[in-house]
Amino acid sequence: MIGFELLSDAGVLVVEPKGALSAEDFREISGEIDPYIREKGKLTGLLIEAASFPGWDSFGALIEHFKFVHDHHRNIDRVAIVTDDAFLKIAPTIAQHFAHPEIRVFASGERVKALEWLQT
Hints:
By secondary structure, this protein is an alpha/beta fold. It has 4 helices and 5 strands, in the order ββαβαβαβα. The chain has a 5-stranded mixed beta sheet with strand order 1-2-3-4-5, with helices on both faces. The radius of gyration is 13 Å and the shape is globular.
C-alpha cells in the first residue's frame, strides 16, 4: 500500500510506501498524475519517503511497477528518495541506466531539503 499526495502547485508527487506494493497502488497514482501531466507536460519531482523498501504483494504488482516507471520516467524531472535503507540508497545507481530523471538520496529527516532540491 502506498500513501500519496500530488502537490499540484509545486508539481511534486509525494509517495510513502506503507506496506507491500500492489498493482492497484500504481493504477491509483497514475489516475491522479496522468491528468496533471497532460495539462502541465510533466512533474517537477517525485519524493519517495520510505524507512525501508516494502517489496511487492505479487508478481503482477512488480510488473505494474515496471510499467508505471516505463510510462512516466520521461515526465518527471527529478526523484528524491528520503531514507536510511541500504537498498533504497543504491537504487539510483541501478535506475540511472534506464530512467530519465535525476535521482538523489537524502537521509531520513531531510524531507524539507529534498523538497527544496526537487523544486530548484
